[in-house]
Amino acid sequence: QVQLVESGGGLVQGGGSLRLSCAASGSIFMINVMGWYRQAPGKQRELVATITSSGSSNLADSVKGRFSISRDNAKNTVYLQMNSLKPEDTAVYYCNIMNALGRGYWGQGTQVTVSS
95: how many CB neighbours lie within 10 A of its CB? Predict the structure, then answer.
């Protein structure tokens, strides 16, 4: 059983910052890629950022220069630092991990609301 526990979401004013965390535990076989996705009301889930076990990261164009992703392999934890938040960043943010066998797992989601 694999569990992903997310934290750090909340309500923030535009221009503010939040830091999301996602800790993975359980029977995980060699976590490879860790990442964050988001889903706004009425929209499809979209990629925000991913990071490999070697530290190579990828960010969506819409968040480049504002968001950064990092991970602590010893703690099986991935972080998303979100700066200069905009109302359009409002969404439920989901943590995702993929192990070396290609199996993926999702967190329960954490709400981020940015007021104008």
Answer: 26
Alpha helix stretches (DSSP H) within 1-116: none
Residue 92, beta-bridge partner list = 39, 111
Cα dihedral sign, 25-31-6-72: positive
3-state secondary structure of 74: helix
Which amino acid type is present at position 48?
V
How far CA 28 is from CA of 35, 51, 72, 97, in Å, comes to: 15, 17, 15, 10
Structure tokens at 25: 């535990």
Distance CA 70, CA 34 (A): 9
pLDDT tens per residue across all 116 residues of the chain: 889 999 999 999 999 999 999 999 988 878 899 999 999 999 999 999 999 999 999 999 999 999 999 999 999 999 999 999 999 999 999 999 999 888 999 999 999 999 99
What residues form DSSP beta bridges with 35? 50, 96
